[in-house]
């Protein structure tokens, strides 16, 4: 185990010890010492390494579990939380009868652009900062069902500009992790209803002004940085939402 002590001067000594330990563990995760989906050492081993009581270590780890960075799996241990696949977006739509199937992805364009105002605001980019814009269609049964536009910061995602369209995965988040080393840890979706524009209606083979569901999503990496903003538009007739409230 690397010799990295949480008692470094960079930590505020007024913080509780468990909070300083949590900061140290977070730093090691973000540095890539433990990858998404990998187990961290046992609490007893970490307690011994940092020279703290087991209860203190448990408190530090629990805070990272509550933050969504780690997850406990009963009988197995504590793991760095695995990245999202991206399929969760599809829970808002119903296509055919096969649950869990992923619609095909058709990449229409990938280009560097000046981020539009909405994307710049959601990604916390400067007004004149460049982003990469990806336009794609999601198809089911040979028909376009969803229209998606994605924006990502130019710097960490610039390698996508050199990628052939056919090499893009139907699920973007696993591709980000595999090709760029960027793990999407969580996402926030906002739903609204709209009317299809002429261009959207033509592509979806629906009447102009047909009711549409619009899903705006902001995705975050392990460090909590905003790394993707996407807008998905589809036929509102396919909308579904189910929630269990207790």
From TrEMBL:
CDD domains: WHTH_GntR (cd07377)
One biological process term in Gene Ontology: negative regulation of DNA-templated transcription
Protein name: GntR family transcriptional regulator
Swiss-Prot/TrEMBL keywords: DNA-binding, Transcription, Transcription regulation
Pfam families registered for this protein in UniProt: GntR, UTRA
InterPro entries membership: Bact_HTH_transcr_reg, Chorismate_lyase_/UTRA_dom_sf, Tscrpt_reg_HTH_GntR, UTRA, WH-like_DNA-bd_sf, WH_DNA-bd_sf
Gene3D superfamilies on file: Chorismate lyase-like, Winged helix-like DNA-binding domain superfamily/Winged helix DNA-binding domain
GO molecular function: DNA binding; DNA-binding transcription factor activity
SUPFAM superfamilies in alphabetical order: Chorismate lyase-like, Winged helix' DNA-binding domain
Domain HTH gntR-type: 15-83
